[in-house]
């Protein structure tokens, strides 16, 4: 019998410089549908299967005082402590679309020893995005 306290993974929040720009970028570069961008431009959401990808500003007073400041990497030799991962049936085409729409190429898709094709890009905030085929 499942407990009514069993959690459902609802969404991941990605802290970005400009919510509206990031929502538009992810929709165009990675093929997501925009679920919502509020009028304040301080919250945006994308449709992504059962889990929502949400965006909010890296600098905000509502949570900085409660949970601390978001740490932004200071160089390309550092990266955010999150990696966004998407599965695609055609990783090569998805990678090409992402790069053509502003993603920074990091590593072109290649077959991995565990049977997955994987490529990496960075989004407009420098966040690493892993683009891979579904692992069977």
UniProtKB/TrEMBL annotation:
Please state every residue range assigned to the domain named VOC: 8-134
User: What's this protein's name?
Assistant: VOC domain-containing protein
Q: Could you tell me which SUPFAM superfamilies the record lists for this protein?
A: Glyoxalase/Bleomycin resistance protein/Dihydroxybiphenyl dioxygenase
CDD domains referenced in this protein's UniProt entry, alphabetically:
VOC_like
Q: Which Gene3D superfamilies does the record cross-reference, listed alphabetically? A: 2,3-Dihydroxybiphenyl 1,2-Dioxygenase, domain 1
Which InterPro entries does this chain map to? Glyas_Bleomycin-R_OHBP_Dase, Glyas_Fos-R_dOase_dom, GlyoxalaseI/FosfomycinResist, VOC_core
List the source organism. Answer: Sesamum angolense
Matching entries from Pfam families are given as: Glyoxalase (PF00903)
